[in-house]
Amino acid sequence: MNWYLQSSEDCDVVKSSRIRLARNLNGFKFNLENKSEIEQLENKIKDNLYSIGYGLKYLKLKDMDDITKMSLVEKNLISPEFALNKSETGSILINDEENICIMIGGKDHINIQVFNCGLDLENTLNLAIEIDKKIEDLTEKKLAIYAINALLKYLEDTQKTSLDHINTIKIYNTTRYMALDINARRNLELTEKMRDKSKKGTLLWVLDKTSTSMGGRLLRRWINDPLIDRSEINERLDAVEELKDSIILRGDVIEALKKVYDIERLAGKISYGNANGRDLISLKNSVKQLPDIKKILATTGSELLRNIYEELDTLDDIYEIIEKSIVDEPPITVKDGGVIKIGYDPEIDKLKLATTEGKKWILDLEAKERELTGIKGLKVGFNKVFGYFIEVTKSNLSMVPDRYVRKQTLANCERYITEDLKNLENQILGAEERVVTLEYNAFCEIRDSIEKQIQRIQKTANLVSILDVISSFAIVAEDMNYVKPEVDDGGIIDIKEGRHPVIEKMISTSNFVPNDTYLDKNSNRLAIITGPNMAGKSTYMRQVALITLMAQIGRFGPASYA
Hints:
Elements lengths: L15 E8 L11 H16 L6 E4 L5 H9 L5 H4 L7 E4 L5 E5 L5 E8 L3 H39 L22 H7 L14 H5 L5 H12 L5 H16 L1 H11 L5 H10 L4 H11 L2 H7 L6 H9 L4 H10 L20 H28 L5 E5 L3 E7 L11 E5 L3 E5 L1 H33 L2 H26 L13 E6 L2 H6 L8 E5 L17 H16 L10
Antiparallel strand pairs: 1-5, 2-3, 3-4, 4-5, 6-7, 7-9, 8-9, 10-11
């Protein structure tokens, strides 16, 4: 149904509301007249504009008959100048309701028109701004993709390794976060002290009770990027509240997280091909905790914790691969063997048997030669230069049989080899060399198979990191007697008995004197703070800023009410 056929209370007074927004693109001159330039403009932007949605259809001006053009003019969807264009260049995007029409190639490069029935300028403007923002975002995303492609090409040329772990593009939208310049970050001492750049005495120091390294890194990012969206903030706050209020739930989560290694870093090492056997065991031990974590979260009610529960991939297949293939305590290097479990590869098992049985073969040969020669002190030794040898002291040289071939003369003994010993050596050493090669190849195949699932691993790591940070917030809230803030769009800061979170922790032996704060957008927009030097004026101002910031990162604050 067309918008102008709709009814409205105001239709008898005001027929319609119309908003027009114009955009011009860099690289094109104003008021294009040249046919080829307009066509170039259309080809550049029509696909982007079409992808913004709203059921828009693409129509070229030259494909319209005169009646259609005049009808669009009468409905104020296109301008008369645009319709009467003799070159018939230009095009439009229009929806079935005909309340949205975008002209391309007119006096302005892009002309957005939005209509609404009655006097409804606010909603009409909001829709026009929404469309304009989507066009802007599409342009920015396209430029971002160009930049990312160039960066990936540079990394590919310089690093000479796989970049498969870089598998998604996330747009950092500054409008999602509260703007904090470098001076604000430094003066508030969010993550490092101004004096010595240390962590102790910062907001991060107070809030960091994370159990994993990846959780600690995420917490730092959250502190530096406070949220603006009220729903996102309250989503975090609700999750913190649930963990804070349930000692058993919180304890179970923390206990499970303590056994999780840095999955993010392990994923990076796997992608780069640098992961060794111990890294895979660390990944296995971390993945082992995921079913328990998922089970713990099964009864949670807050939206954020429910989302973690539903989206958490337990990576059972990856656990099984590592469990059946890699020994529990592998060596540091993967090129010396001893990495692959018995039972994983029949060929490796066969060769390993030869190496282990080889020791028994050598002992049996030693006993046999002692019996045949009568030399009780005879022994079979090994070094990397000569391999296996029979060693006889000089006092027994007269008993050495002719079949012994002298290999080396030492001060107190002679070393010999025999045909039987040489054959055993070839079997044992050949098996050892072969098994090392096969184990390394098998390990690389295992690592490559896990690398193909790297996106799943990264997603799981991110969810575990979020859970870790939320748990950290709950711990601090409980330990420091913080309260859940009420976050809305009212533009009011109302803090009762607020305390500076860092100073309060630093002077735990004495009581911090709390302070109230009330600011709004009306008569209480400004507060004048007076007092002598060292009276606490700066502390008070930083206290208000920190409590507000803590609320916007989704955590409880040091106050009786906020």
